[in-house]
Amino acid sequence: MIVEVQNLVKRYPTFELKNVSFGLERGRIAGFVGRNGAGKTTTIKSMLGMVHPDGGTVRYFGGLLSENEAEIKKRIGYSAGTLAWYPRKRIREIVRVVKPFYDTWDEDAYRNYLDFFSIDEEKTPLELSEGMKVKVNLMLALSHRAEALILDEPTSGLDPFSRNELLNVFLALKREGVAVLFSTHIISDLERCADDIIYISKGSVVAARPKEDFIREYSAAGESLEDTMLRLEGGAAHA
C-alpha cells in the first residue's frame, strides 16, 4: 500500500469520524463517495495534517505522516477544488512561490499542463471561473511528479467536457503508477475511472473495496451505481 489510513478518529461537537480505515495502491484510482457531511473532507484533511485526528494513524510509503510530514508532502499532490490563496497575484507569480518547495518540480510537466488545461498564467485567480480555479490547483499538484494525489471534489465546477479531460488525466497517471484518491458526488465519474470505491456514511466507512466487488455485493439486478448509492443512503424513494 502506498497510503494506509488506520482507525482514524476525529471528534467534533456535532460530528464524529469513527475508526476510518482504507488503503491506496500504486496505479489505482479510488473514488471516495458519500453525501454532504458524511466525513469525506474531514478524512482528507486528517490525511494531510490539516486537522489533527483524535486517534488512528496515516502512513505514506510506509512512514507515519506525523513523523515525516515535510518529506511526505514533497511526494504527494493535493487539491481542494478551487484556488483560494493569492487571489490578486498572477498565476506565474504563484508558481514562482510554490515550485521551490518541491525538489521534483518538473518544468516541462508544468508547461504541458498549462497548455492542456488552457490556463493563462498572466491572469489572477480573481479573474478565473470556478472551473479554471480547479484546473490551476490541479496543475500545481501535478507539476511536481507526485506519487499519490489526494483530491477533494476535483471535478466540482467543471463542465462535462472539462470533467472528461480531467478523468482522462487520472487514467494516464494511473498508467504511470500514481495512486489517486478523489472525493466526488458525481457517480458517473466513479463509473468512468474508479478502480476502487470507498463509501463513507455518517462518519464511518461502510465499504472500501474494488468497484467490481462493491457492485457485486451492494447492487441489485439491473441497478446502476447511482441507483445503488441512492438506495444505500435511503434516498431512492426521493430520486
Task: Please specify the SSE layout and strand pairing.
Blueprint: E1 3-12, E2 15-24, E3 29-33, H1 40-47, E4 55-60, E5 63-64, H2 65-75, E6 76-79, H3 91-98, H4 107-116, H5 130-142, E7 148-152, H6 160-175, E8 179-184, H7 187-193, E9 196-201, E10 204-210, H8 211-218, H9 225-232
Parallel strand pairs: 3-8, 3-9, 6-7, 7-8
Antiparallel strand pairs: 1-2, 1-4, 4-5, 9-10
Helix pairs in contact: 4-5
Record keyword descriptors for this entry.
239 residues; Rossmann fold; 6-stranded mixed sheet; 4-stranded antiparallel sheet
Describe this structure in words.
The structure is a single chain. The protein has a 6-stranded mixed beta sheet with strand order 6-7-8-3-9-10, with helices on both faces. It has a 4-stranded antiparallel beta sheet with strand order 2-1-4-5. Helix content is 37%, strand content 26%. It contains 9 helices and 10 strands. It is an alpha/beta fold and 239 residues long. A hairpin with a 2-residue loop joins strand 1 and strand 2. The model has no long low-confidence stretch (mean pLDDT 90). It has a single domain, classed as Rossmann fold (3-Layer(aba) Sandwich), CATH 3.40.50.
Report the portion of residues in β strands: 25-35%
Find the CATH topology: Rossmann fold
Describe the sheet with the most strands.
6 strands, mixed
Distance between the termini: 37 Å
Helix fraction by DSSP (H/I, runs of at least 4): 25-40%
The first-level CATH class is given as Alpha Beta
> How many DSSP H or I helices?
9
Which stretches of 5+ consecutive residues score pLDDT under 50?
A: none
Q: H/E series, N to C?
A: EEEHEEHEHHHEHEHEEHH
Query: How many domains make up the 3D coordinates?
Result: 1
CATH architecture: 3-Layer(aba) Sandwich
CATH superfamily: P-loop containing nucleotide triphosphate hydrolases
| SSE-based structural type | alpha/beta
* Strand arrangement across the biggest beta sheet: 6-7-8-3-9-10
Shape: globular
Whole-number radius of gyration?
18 Å
Average pLDDT? 90
Number of strands: 10
